[in-house]
Amino acid sequence: MIKKSRFEHRAKGFTILELLIATLVFSVVLMLVTAGILQMAKVYYKGVTESNTQNTARAIIDTISQAIQFSGGDVTATAASPAPNSNYAFCIGNTQYSYRLGWQVEDGSTPSLNQTWHSLVQAPVSNCTSSSAPQNLTTQVVNGRDLVGKHMRLSNLVVTPAGANSYKIQVSVIYGDNDLLNNPTAANASCKSATAGSQFCASMQLSTIVVKRVK
User: Fold this and answer.
1) What DSSP string describes 166-179?
2) What is the CA radius of gyration of the chain?
3) What's the rounded Cα separation, in Å, for the pair 8 and 16?
4) What is d(CA 2, CA 15) in angstroms, rounded to the nearest whole number?
5) Cα 185 to the chain's mean position, in Å?
6) CA dist 2 → 5, 8, 73, 108 (Å)
7) Which residues, at least 6 apart from 110, have a Cβ–Cβ distance to it below 8 Å?
8) The pLDDT value given to residue 123
9) Quick one: pLDDT at residue 194?
């Protein structure tokens, strides 16, 4: 009778069952790690989107507030019931703010449904009054400075008198494509919940009351 050497006993490899179990465990761990990375990426992009939207809304309200405080000129109110498919404007001294509500800013060669080249443009206009015609924001070339960034839309903009030499300003900025939004062209536009791509949607509403310091 031939005895097997100790080396031959130790040379045994893994069985097929052991390999299958090891592969299954590795696959589960890999899936969990991948899911964690995707979730972290989603949280990161959500934070960036919300931060950019908040910064844009804050910049708009700061720009308008400072103009009212220190321009020394007359302030005309925004439109009472603006339609999403029209251009409007209001004046602060000799500066005109042309705006278009509810349309997403895109710089592609051919903006599609509810998209426009510009949403809120600040430009100097001599003797600006409530009857001064707004700029056409659906054309590529305009005069002045854009205050709304790409992929964003101005969903609401209100500048109205709030008392003696004081004005109330309300600004709503939305980031996201139409399919990510409830009522995308309305003043109450909001992000859909539990929707794929929701990390690329954000909304920000700000309001303040400003007192004119220079007359």
Assistant:
1) EEEEEEEEEES-GG
2) 28
3) 19
4) 25
5) 14
6) 9, 12, 110, 82
7) none
8) 97
9) 75
Nearest to 159 by CA among 67, 59, 84: 67
Helices (H), the chain: 6-10, 16-70
Q: How many CA atoms lie within 13 A of 51 on its CB side?
A: 6
What is the token pair recorded at 143? 């005069």
Cβ density class 66-87: b for 16+ within 10 Å, e for less: ebbeebebebbebbeebebeeb
Q: Is 161 helix (H, G, I), strand (E, B) or coil?
A: strand
Asked whether 98 and 135 are in contact (CB, 8 A), the reply is yes
pLDDT of residue 91: 97
| Contacts made by residues 175-179, CB under 8 angstroms, sequence distance 24+ | 175/49, 175/52, 175/53, 175/151, 175/200, 175/201, 175/202, 175/203, 176/49, 176/151, 176/200, 176/201, 176/202, 177/104, 177/151, 178/104, 178/113, 178/114
Distance (Å, whole) CA 202 – CA 183:
14
> What is the pTM assigned to this prediction?
0.82
Low-confidence ranges of the chain (pLDDT < 50): 7
Identity of the amino acid at 17: L
